Automatic annotation (TrEMBL):
Transmembrane segments: none annotated. InterPro entries: CoA-bd, NAD(P)-bd_dom_sf. It comes from Hymenobacter rubripertinctus. Gene3D superfamilies: NAD(P)-binding Rossmann-like Domain. This is CoA-binding protein. Residues 2-114 form the CoA-binding domain.
Length: 119
């Protein structure tokens, strides 16, 4: 299964990041939730630091492009295989930086990908 770092994790059930974490776990993926506030989601502690995570396959973004620049180095230094830009998080600048490092980028919805078996 794919170790996934969810950037923009929240304990608010009305948010898509919350639903994505639950769905990722239900599909058997290891999840590292990272957000701006501490809390818990799907039995996992939301990290509000920048945890060193080894072997990250995917970073799925739930942070708007205006708030992403402060995370660029962290995301890129994780050296994931891919970054998923969920709706509303599209960012040509970060996509270009990632692609220059050989990181695949996708403008897609993690929830949809999981539901149709294309994650």
């Amino acid at each position: 299964m794919k170790k996934t770092l969810v950037l923009g994790a929240t304990d608010n059930p009305a948010r898509y990041a919350y639903r994505a974490i639950h769905q990722l776990k239900q599909h058997g993926h290891e999840v590292v939730p990272v957000g701006i506030r501490k809390g818990q989601v799907a039995g996992l502690d939301i990290r509000n630091d920048r945890p060193a995570a080894e072997g990250v396959d995917t970073v799925t973004l739930y942070v708007g492009p205006q708030n992403q620049p402060g995370w660029y180095d962290y995301i890129l230094d994780l050296n994931p295989k891919r970054i998923i830009f969920n709706p509303g998080t599209e960012n040509p600048e970060l996509e270009k930086l990632a692609q220059q490092r050989g990181i695949q980028t996708e403008e897609a919805c993690t929830l949809v990908m999981l539901s149709v078996g294309q994650y």
